[in-house]
Hints:
Largest sheet: 4 strands, antiparallel
Strand order of the largest sheet: 1-2-3-4
Oligomer: single chain
Structural class: mainly beta
Amino acid sequence: MAIDPADPSVLYLQETDDGDCYWALLRSTDGGANWSTFWPSLETGVNALLIDPTNTAVIYAGLETGFCKTADGGATWQCNALQNISVTTLALDPGDPSALYAGSS
């Protein structure tokens, strides 16, 4: 789960159903009362979510197969390096917000 640092009523949560291998990222704009599909039909589960505190339209998702980024609030996603590596944690460098750190087991 991730909470938008600029608006705490905006929440993000992964939906997982390992039985049929369905994963999706959900978003709530009312503090969790209602949820909508934000990123449907993921091919893998989301291990970590990170919202850029300086630009909340930028969201990073650590996946079981690398990580992806949206710079437009989720309209489009780009998957980046570290493919086929399970990314379990993400952090931005507080001194250099353009530096993203990704951790794996």
